[in-house]
Design a protein that fits this description.
InterPro entries: PepSY-ass_TM. This protein has helices spanning 3-34, 37-44, 63-74, 131-141, 145-170, 176-179, 188-218, 220-230, 252-262, 320-333, 338-348, 351-373, and strands at 81-85, 93-98, 110-114, 121-126, 267-273, 281-286, 298-302, 309-313. By secondary structure, the protein is α+β, with helices and mostly antiparallel strands. The protein has 2 domains: 3-35 and 150-223 and 339-372; 46-129 and 236-317, no CATH class. Helix 1 (3-34) packs antiparallel against helix 4 (131-141), helix 1 crosses helix 5 (145-170) and helix 7 packs across helix 12.
């Protein structure tokens, strides 16, 4: 690489970092907090920390129908839908209430926590109306819905460009030992440069994983396009409808029994209970081999009136792209490696702030130094 090319690359790296560095720092800080989203939220709201002497509710527990009845008494909307979460532990039961049939990241919803026996509501708050959900919306969408998701997604790719351009611009032409040295007793501008350099170099590999997976989560259409180009088109999750649009809905217990028969080795994660209409019950299930514990990628659909099995989306029978796609969220939130990797993911989320602050201060000190060396005009 010629000296002129290196200078141009450094300028590109500088101005891209100054342009998007503040946003990347914000996303990193909010992401660090969200690694322990559930634990922090429970610590802030003791009401949901209720303990129970019973075992955690599973496929055959009667608590689901009791909680659903309690929830529907709380929200008397025949078209509203409920999503009950099976956390795998005893205690309060988290749920989501959607006043319409539209689900997804941008759908209006209320978060509800039932007592361990499902007989009462111990907490209910609108999504985005309490601290951790507000941080989630800020991290995922910048509080700007689908448009914000686009900004977040492309900023993830900008982070990858920053990391790569920084390493290429730094790449030593001489002694590696000198290039990797950190001079603690050097002048402040050199220490800032060294801190910025080392923060980027030693975190690059893992930070690239966080940035890349975050971009793909925010831009699902790009994710599908990339997987389709690199491997093959991912299997589509079925979207079946019940055999009728009205009638008497079966119990949650009946729907669970029908689903459990086809995935007897699966762990229940979520129960999506439809309102009046043709939508079916949808059970989200973690089967052996699925990397994400809380948000697995297998689904079972059951007719809400007849109890008939409608469709199964088992990740074990999916193609390579389907299985690869299941790892994206797991890699992004650090849950793939348990507590040690979650702590590491939290620490990595702080690195963009370190890099932005050190890069900005280094730039400001360079500007000040140039101004002092050219007191009568701008530097050439």
């Amino acid at each position: 690489m010629t000296s002129r090319t290196r200078i141009l690359l450094r300028r590109f790296h500088l101005w891209l970092g100054l342009g998007v560095g503040g946003l990347l720092a914000l996303l990193g800080l909010t992401g660090s907090a969200l690694v322990f989203y559930v634990e922090i939220d429970e610590a802030i709201h003791p009401a949901v920390q209720q303990t129970s002497i019973t075992v955690a509710p599973d496929w055959s527990s009667p608590v689901w129908d009791r909680a659903l009845a309690t929830g529907r008494a709380h929200r008397r909307d025949p078209h509203g839908t409920w999503s009950l979460e099976a956390t795998g532990k005893s205690g309060a039961i988290p749920a989501r209430y959607y006043p319409s049939a539209r689900h997804g990241h941008h759908a209006e919803r209320e978060m509800v926590w039932f007592s361990p026996d499902g007989s009462e509501i111990v907490r209910a708050e609108p999504w985005g109306g309490y601290l951790m959900s507000w941080l989630y919306e800020l991290h995922m969408h910048l509080l700007a819905g689908a448009f914000g998701s686009q900004i977040v997604g492309w900023s993830g790719f900008a982070m990858l460009v920053l990391l790569i351009s920084g390493v290429v611009a730094w790449w030593p032409r001489g002694s590696w030992r000198k290039a990797l040295a950190f001079k603690r007793h050097a002048v402040p501008i050199r220490r800032l440069r060294d801190l910025h350099k080392h923060a980027g170099l030693w975190s690059m590999a893992l930070l690239s994983v966080l940035a890349g997976t975050g971009a793909l989560l925010a831009l699902p259409s790009i994710k599908v396009r990339l997987l389709s180009t690199a491997v093959t088109a991912p299997d589509k999750v079925p979207a079946p409808l019940s055999s009728a649009a009205s009638g008497r809905q079966i119990s949650v217990a009946q729907a669970l029994a029908a689903a459990h028969r086809v995935v007897p080795d699966g762990r229940l994660a979520f129960i999506d209970v439809p309102g009046a209409g043709p939508e079916p019950f949808r059970m989200r299930v973690r089967v052996p081999g699925d990397p994400h514990r809380r948000f697995p990628s297998s689904f079972v659909f059951v007719d809400q009136y007849s109890g008939r099995l409608l469709a199964v989306h088992d990740i074990r029978r999916g193609n390579a792209s389907t299985k690869a796609g299941a790892w994206i969220r797991t890699l992004h939130d650090g849950s793939v490696g348990g507590m040690p990797l979650r702590i590491l993911a939290m620490i990595l989320g702080l690195i963009p702030t370190v890099m932005f602050v050190t890069g900005f201060l280094h730039w400001r000190r360079r500007i000040a130094a140039r101004a002092q060396s050219h007191p009568t005009g701008s530097p050439s």
